[in-house]
Amino acid sequence: MADKKTAEQVKHDFWKKLADSPFVMLGLKDNQHSEPLTAQLDKDQVDTIYFFVAKDNRAARGGPAMVQFVSKGHDFFACISGTAKLSDEPGMIDKLWSKQVEAWFPGGKNDPNLALLRFDIGTAEMWETDISLGGKLKMLFGGTIKSDEMGEHEMVATTREGTSA
């Protein structure tokens, strides 16, 4: 069995996996369904994820929200609680703009329907599935996998790297 990862390592893995595959489901806590959005990451911001949305998008009105993430390899899962609000930070649209975003907003950075949604992370629960060889064999043959063979699970008050929470 591999050594247990620290919460710090799991948080580091989360940001790495999210940068590699920035697709999440975001929903306001208002009994409406979540919707797929592309996370925009700013390395200068801690516990913050941005999204380009249309001003008439249901998430644009903001409020308490949840983000769900599954990594590209289906080996990392996160459920993140926080608050969404439209960003009025000068320069953030320029800083986060890309050709991929431009494909969704034909009017470019000055598109009248363009808005930048800021999601401030409150708490997160993360699962990293690094199943041991013995656990994989048990899965293959229908055996029971013990918790120490499954991977890592952390509940954190911040996704900031370098903190113990």
Description:
The protein has helices spanning 7-20, 92-96, 99-104, 133-140, and strands at 23-28, 35-38, 48-54, 63-70, 76-86, 114-128, 152-156. It has 165 residues and is of the alpha+beta class. It has one domain (7-156): Pnp Oxidase, Chain A. It comes from Stakelama flava. Residues 12-140 form the General stress protein FMN-binding split barrel domain. It holds the Pfam family Pyrid_ox_like.
Which key features would you list for this structure?
165 residues; alpha+beta; Pnp Oxidase, Chain A; 7-stranded antiparallel sheet; 4 helices; 7 strands; 34% strand; globular; Pyridoxamine 5'-phosphate oxidase family protein
Task: From the alpha carbons, calculate the radius of gyration and give it in angstroms.
Answer: 18 Å
Shape descriptor reads globular
* SS content category: alpha+beta
- Overall pLDDT, averaged? 85
Q: Can you tell me the CATH architecture? A: Roll
CATH uppermost class: Mainly Beta
For the biggest sheet, the summary is: 7 strands, antiparallel
Span between termini? 25 Å
The fourth-level CATH homologous superfamily is Electron Transport, Fmn-binding Protein, Chain A
Low-confidence spans? none
- CATH fold node name: Pnp Oxidase, Chain A
Could you give the count of β-strands? 7
- Put simply, the count of helices is 4
In the residues, how many domains can be counted? 1
The helix content is 10-25%
Q: Secondary-structure element order, as H and E?
A: HEEEEEHHEHE
Strand content: 25-35%
Protein name: Pyridoxamine 5'-phosphate oxidase family protein
Domain General stress protein FMN-binding split barrel: 12-140
Pfam family, one: Pyrid_ox_like
InterPro entries: Stress-Dev_Protein, YdaG_split_barrel_FMN-bd
